[in-house]
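Quick sanity check, Glutathione transferase:
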Amino acid sequence: MSPQVTLFSNGLVPNPAKIAILLEELNIEYKVINRGLRKEDADGAWSTQFLELNPVGRLPVIIDHTNNDLVVWESAVILSYLAERFSSDGKYAGKSLEEKTLVSQWLLFDASQLAAMVFEHHWYKRMHHVKNLDRSIYERYEFEIYRFWSILEHRLEKQDWIALDRMTIVDIALYPWLKLSNFLELDLSKNPKLTAYITRLEDIPSVKKAYELHFKELAKVCDVAGPSASL
């Protein structure tokens, strides 16, 4: 069967993982094309050909073959698009204006707050060309990550899922970034509700299948702490 969607991905990156999870959850036929992330990768995300799909040169990107080969980029937008197009009952993106607003605000919390802080922490602690930077440079990002975890912990003290009374694209979006706590060498133990929530997401069949098929390397990274781990 021809794929309904093509997903441009990289097996070591959290954002494409969330798209694969939703594709599995929605039972969409899809194929994955992996692309490198370095500028020197001939057919990578920085290549001239790929920049025609996404001028920012980032992953993920999808092509929806059921909708005139529409190209969609930015992971939060892709999640919203797929949920709206392939799940018309609003189960994953919200049924009413109020539900959709709650989903949107938490989706942006993930994209612009939590994920951004995790990446900056990783960049300054592990990837910066100047080694052994003063700890104060990335302590700010650690503080923000812990603060965001406490916000999620407080939310989960009131309900089982972050945005609504059921799993939505918000929970799918959060999972790959929350799984990186060990890799970041940060302590989740003060957030028992959040820890249990991550475990619950981990056991969902669509999450398991997406990681087993396409993100085994990312899963290994999540289990490794310290300087030997790398994204």
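Posting the structure with no commentary besides this: Residues 178 and 198 are 7 Å apart (CA to CA).
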